[in-house]
Amino acid sequence: MSTIVLVNLQKRFGDFTAVRGTDLTVGAGRFVVLLGPSGCGKTTTLRMIAGLELPTSGQILIDGEDVTALRARQRDIAFVFQMFALYPHMTVRNNIAFPLKNEHVPRHEIASRVDAAARMLRIEELLDRKTGGLSGGDRQRVALGRAIVRQPKAFLMDEPLGTLDADFRELMCLELRKLHNALSATTVYVTHDQSEAMAMADDLVVMNQGEVLQSGPPHEIYHYPATVFVGNFIGSPPMNFLPVEGAVHAGDETVRLHDAAVSIPRCDATAERVLLGIRPEHVVIDEHGPLRGKVIADEYLGSHQVLIIETAVGTLRARTSKDARLAAGSPVGLSFRRDRTLLYDAASGRLLPGAAHG
Q1: Which site among 55, 94, 120, 247 is 20 to 30 Å from 310 CA-CA?
Q2: What pLDDT is recorded for position 60?
Q3: Where does 240-345 sit in CATH, by number?
Q4: Handedness of CA 19, 25, 31, 32 (dihedral sign)
Q5: Residues of 244-276 as b/e, b for ≥16 C-beta within 10 angstroms?
């Protein structure tokens, strides 16, 4: 298990800054997921950790050693790509053994490590088959096996499940997490799929436009998004953001949405333009609720349904029981769970400090 520390890491390609001022600590044995939309800088960050890209400035430390200028092969890190990068003319056994042969590991130790990896990945029966004829899921297991046998300091994975179909991807999420636990390895994993990230991560790192916007445990990021972007990106459906009427001042415990007074945890900051953030599951259909609206559509999802409601301050979504009977056009009253109500500075998009979340 190794600790990876990034210090003010930056990467520019000409006039374009792909990664800017990233400070991040990946704790030993943690499964850390870099999450964000395409082009946010997550893969570039991963490639810099691996030594496949050199940073423009900043430092990369592995177990306290500055490896910023070291080549990839000098960092003792295993990289698993989205495209499996296997040799189709070779057997599974020879593909997994390939990096060990290059390192001149003794033959008996190669055999032992390959057999152990195959048992862990449950691909023993495939060892003597050519990889060219395997399914995508089996090829991904072979690629993982080739990384495991190296017994590296850390595993880096760049969207390794991206080419798999949805059902098998869900299964492989579970398998990867079990594998991580069995190896007690430090893992940095890149994806743009929030469901994949939430299912596997010990810590999430949400990125956009080359910046780390928030990092921490998934439940913390879900319940207390640090920015409007994070609240929109994490969660399905995403967080509702509604404009507050007038400025908000430190000590306020009520805000106005149009003509509705809404209770909030005490605000500890002042801002001229404010958005109220609330998750759909914390919107309550309440005939006595202060905010009035009209149902314009519903999304039936089996275990629950999501109502799309038009109000004087904009459209919002409310997650309700699957048995709720509210047809399009139905008038509703709305209230919000006070302890789950957040305020954001509309100018910066950042969360305002409050009594409930520090």
Answers
A1: 247
A2: 97
A3: 2.40.50.140
A4: negative
A5: beeebeeebeebebeebebebbebebebeebbb
